[in-house]
Amino acid sequence: MIDIDLLVQVLRKRGHTVESVFGVPENAGTYSLIVDGDLMAMSEARYLLEQDTGPHPVVSQSAAAHH
Fold first, then answer.
1. pLDDT of residue 28 exceeding 80
2. For residue 36, how many other CB atoms are within 10 A of its CB?
3. How far apart are alpha carbons 46 and 41 in whole angstroms?
4. What's the pTM?
């Protein structure tokens, strides 16, 4: 099980703006987040963290750029 609060905390610590977190229907995944102004699935937010190289502010990137 994912600790969504921890995911949001780490995103913010690395300089991302997390505006909203909300649950979505079971067939669509567990959570969606608005990070740096982009709506993304939880898996996309995790990918964004994997691409970060350290705890410094990151320029906003479109979630589409990660596909």
1. no
2. 19
3. 9
4. 0.46
Within 1-67, strands assigned E span: 18-23, 31-35, 38-41
d(CA 14, CA 67): 21
Q: How many CB atoms lie within 10 A of CB 29?
A: 13
Determine the Cα–Cα distance for residues 67 and 51; give it in Å rounded to an integer.
13
Amino acid at site 65: A
The number of angstroms, rounded, from the C-alpha of 62 to the middle of its chain's C-alpha atoms is 11
Q: Which letter, b or e, does each residue of 3-25 get, where b requires 16 or more Cβ atoms within 10 Å of its Cβ?
A: eeeebbebbeebebebeebeeee
The label of the residue with tokens 């099980």 reads 1
Residue 17 tokens, joined: 């703006």
Task: Give mean pLDDT, residues 43-57.
Answer: 75
Kindly state the helix (H) or strand (E) to which residue 9 belongs, with its residue range. helix 4-13
